[in-house]
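The methods section describes the discrete structure representation at length, but only in general terms. An entry of this sort, consisting of the sequence and the corresponding backbone structure tokens, reads as follows.
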Amino acid sequence: MDLSTRAVVTACLAAAVAVAAFFGQLPLTVAAGALALAVAVGWPRLLDIPVHGGTRIVIAIAGVGAVAATAATPGEPALRHLPVVLALSIVLAFVAELLRRDGRPRLTESLIGTVSGIVVATSCAGWIATGRTDAGASLVVTCAVALAVASAASALPVGGWVNAGLTLGLAVAAGGAVGYVMPGLDLLSGVWSGVVAGMLVASLHALFDRLPELRGRLGAFSATALPVAVGGTLIFVVGRVIVG
């Protein structure tokens, strides 16, 4: 999967989150859970972790568990049970390593890779928490659109700082425009959403652009889901600080 294809897939995933948020909390919860599974399925390939099956299962349980716990949590703060899910998932990662019967080569690398996947997958719960802020679906849609535009911009045939600048600039423009017309938001909130989306996509593009194949299709698919997954928690912070 080349760079342009990955950018298109990321844009489609972000657009799917925006559409789900528009239709309500239940579709957004389903989309967040599917996003966590998308991270889990290719994460071992992306990081070249020695044992794939156990890592996928642990990350999938962590991501879906975080989404389910957040969706089932009444009132605020919506993420108050997330630390428990993270702690139990890390314990599960240790158990998965203890169950290995291959002599446990590259043990530290495998464990760190699994824990990093847990953090990314559980970040998907941030989309649900964002949907419960004062701006709610408007903020989710604004950030998701900014992510989609930033992902498309990152595939433009320019490199280096020029690509990063275009990605950030177009994301800010898209976020500001959508935030201006969405109920409960304003231009400044949309601009901040665009800044978060643009910086996230630009930084991940700089990280992955020297790995055109990303260790197979599954690894590349996980990489496409990464900015959308991490964006959930980041935009939740923006919602709390900027929107309220």
